[in-house]
């Protein structure tokens, strides 16, 4: 690996260590990846892109507005993740169960903001469809 790649990996490790001190949960982030079958048919597969990442979630009541004020999406949780993770709208996030909390599955609505260059907050919504897809993956 290059010196730049090694430096990026080092930063990711350090950020992960800081996040794990403040984040009581871990999560797996998946997204739909398009590919073609041997017959040339497009298929979409839910694929894990990050696993066992430190995270924290909290309940909120937020709505993202678009253009003339119509509601684009409603979020019922804010998810805090390391800033080194690329999260996209429509990604599926499964927060692992703990001794006191059941596993939860969310669909990413969009970014909220980055905090101190270490954390990012992402608006997410519980989604039964995403929950079923994540379990089937």
Model description:
- With 137 residues, the chain is α+β, with helices and mostly antiparallel strands.
- It is built from 2 helices and 6 strands.
- The protein has helices at residues 3-22, 128-136; strands at 25-36, 42-66, 70-82, 92-95, 104-115, 119-126.
- It has a 6-stranded antiparallel β-barrel.
Write the layout of secondary structure elements.
Layout: H1 3-22, E1 25-36, E2 42-66, E3 70-82, E4 92-95, E5 104-115, E6 119-126, H2 128-136
Radius of gyration, taken over Cα atoms and rounded to an integer in Å: 16 Å
Kindly report how far apart the N and C termini lie.
31 Å
Helix tally equals 2
Q: Determine the strand fraction and express it as a percent band.
A: over 45%
Instruction: Tell me the helix content.
Output: 10-25%
Shape descriptor reads globular
- Integer average pLDDT: 77
Succession of helices and strands: HEEEEEEH
Number of distinct beta strands: 6
Biggest sheet details: 6 strands, antiparallel, barrel
Unreliably modeled segments? none
Q: What class, by secondary structure content? A: alpha+beta
Oligomer: single chain
- Describe the strand arrangement of the main beta sheet, using strand numbers: 1-2-3-6-5-4
